[in-house]
Amino acid sequence: MTLPPDHPLIPKPKIGVLLMNLGTPDGPDAKSVKRYLGEFLSDSRVVEIPQIAWQPILRGIILNTRPKKSAHAYSQVWREDGSPLAAITRLQAAALKDSFGPGVLVDWAMRYGNPSISDRLTAMKAAGCERILLAPLYPQYCAATTATANDKAFKHLAGLRWQPAIRTLPPYYDDTLYIDALKDSLEEGLSALDFTPDAIVASFHGMPKRTLQQGDPYHCHCQKTARLLGERMGRELTIAFQSRFGPQKWLGPATDETLVALAKAGKTKVAIFAPGFSADCLETLEELSIRGRESFEEAGGTHFAYLPCLNDSPVGVEMLRSILARELEGWVRAG
């Protein structure tokens, strides 16, 4: 059919896969961190306090004190290609680029910071994506991570006249593909150590305890991941939760306290990993690998190893490729 000469250009229909992760400042400086924290901590999914009460605290105290400290932490882990989280997510998207055929675009975005979810959805729609799989890269579901990433995408879609069809990646905390990838990655890391750990700590990001009481499945998902992985490896894992913030009660036991307790109990050789993170970031590279080591050694620990996330490793990318291909069934047949 011949289109009228004034007909707008319509690209060939495509399918999009948008990898979404938490976010990062644009640089390891206080100004960039302040802008990032302002967006992150203003999310009502993250801080569930009425904004009329929270914003004066955030704007008057936290954003005038925390950015400088956080900027120093970011500077310790910043890479030549940028923030670790952004750099690794970009590499994951690049590794998956040709996994699903020429009609499927794979892109990536951050919930907070750049590139934004809205910008990448706009680009996907302009490129002809009439069907998009939103893929929050959080194995364990949490309202403060999975839900808010999807919220941001849905908010953008609400402003479109011509919306693409949308699917969302379910949490994969107990997926055999994920558990096996963790096992392979962990065993490879352990085999490269020059010591045998007395304990292996699985450190998940913490959440306020009341989120569990209000029905968020995150704590249960973390526990099941660790249980399945421990069973698969044939050894017990020590579960802990990191990154406490504020005076409220958080899920426990706390990672920093657990490391100290292990050292004082005579378990002086420890390996720690973070199965809830799909990519290494500030919380793993600075909080665990640097500060975790310091706390452990100060308490009497002698051997400490942080084992990296799945990141863009071959086993990690293959796991992502497989679970994404499954969610794309009916839209596309992967080669």
Give the helices and strands, then pairings.
Blueprint: E1 14-24, H1 30-40, H2 51-77, H3 84-95, E2 104-113, H4 117-126, E3 129-136, H5 143-157, E4 165-168, H6 176-191, E5 199-205, H7 209-213, H8 218-233, E6 238-242, H9 255-264, E7 269-273, H10 282-285, H11 287-298, E8 303-307, H12 314-327
Parallel strand pairs: 1-2, 1-3, 3-4, 5-6, 5-7, 7-8
Helix pairs in contact: 1-2, 6-8, 6-12, 9-11
Describe what this molecule looks like in 3D.
- The protein contains twelve helices and eight strands.
- It starts with 13 loop residues before the first strand and ends in an 8-residue tail after the last helix.
- The model has no long low-confidence stretch (mean pLDDT 95).
- Helices cover 45% and strands 16% of the residues.
- The chain is α/β, with parallel strands linked by helices.
- α1 crosses α2 and α6 packs antiparallel against α12.
Q: Averaging pLDDT over every residue, what do you get?
A: 95
* Percent helix: 40-55%
Categorize the overall geometry: globular
- Give the spatial strand order of the biggest sheet: 2-1-3-4
Q: Which series of helices and strands comes N to C?
A: EHHHEHEHEHEHHEHEHHEH
Total of DSSP H or I helical runs spanning 4+ residues: 12
How far apart, in Å, are the first and last alpha carbons? Answer: 31 Å
Uncertain segments are none
**Strands, count:** 8
Taken as a percent bin, the fraction of beta residues is 15-25%
Radius of gyration (Å): 21 Å
- Characterize the largest beta sheet: strand count, sense, and whether it forms a barrel: 4 strands, parallel
Classification by helices and strands: alpha/beta
